[in-house]
Specification:
38% of the residues lie in helices and 20% in strands. The protein is α+β, with helices and mostly antiparallel strands.
Length: 156
């Protein structure tokens, strides 16, 4: 999508990454456009895939999440179908917050959010180690994390 973006599009993306709750009028003022032009640009960015969604950040404990972990997985067989099938399996699990397919000794890294240690143990046993395509699994508890409010931009 990047090839058709100009400096105003990037300004819109930057502003919304930092505060997705900006009204169209506030956003238009920030980027120097008339509200109608700004709204059209936002609609185009959504339509063309430059904006995938608008999200609310909720503290995990409000949702009953007492623990988060990263689960690294190594597959037995390195075939496209195995990667696709296992990736689909991970994305379908309600506890999985994010899935990363990796290069290196591990094939997947799954960020999971669970109630407690028992929930983590059940998830690991039932949804990871019991699967025939999994050769090895390693879990690391997350004590704290920070997510940058915006992705960096590497364009001219």
């Amino acid at each position: 999508m990047e090839h058709g973006l100009d400096r105003i599009d990037f300004a819109i993306l930057d502003a919304l990454q930092h505060n997705a709750r900006l009204s169209n009028k506030e956003l238009a003022s920030k980027v120097g456009l008339a509200p109608s032009s700004c709204l059209e640009r936002v609609r185009r960015l959504v339509r063309d895939g430059g904006l995938r969604g608008f999200h609310a950040e909720v503290p995990p404990e409000v949702l009953g999440i007492g623990m988060q972990a990263m689960i690294a997985v190594r597959l037995r067989v390195h075939a496209r179908a195995t990667f696709e099938s296992f990736g689909d399996h991970l994305r379908a699990l309600p506890e999985v917050v994010a899935v990363y397919q990796l290069a290196g000794k591990d094939d997947f890294l799954a960020h999971v959010a669970v109630r407690d240690t028992e929930h983590l143990r059940e998830l690991a046993m039932d949804q990871f180690t019991s699967r025939p395509e999994v050769e090895h699994m390693e879990t690391a508890l997350i004590f704290d994390h920070h997510r940058a409010p915006a992705l960096p931009r590497y364009t001219g």
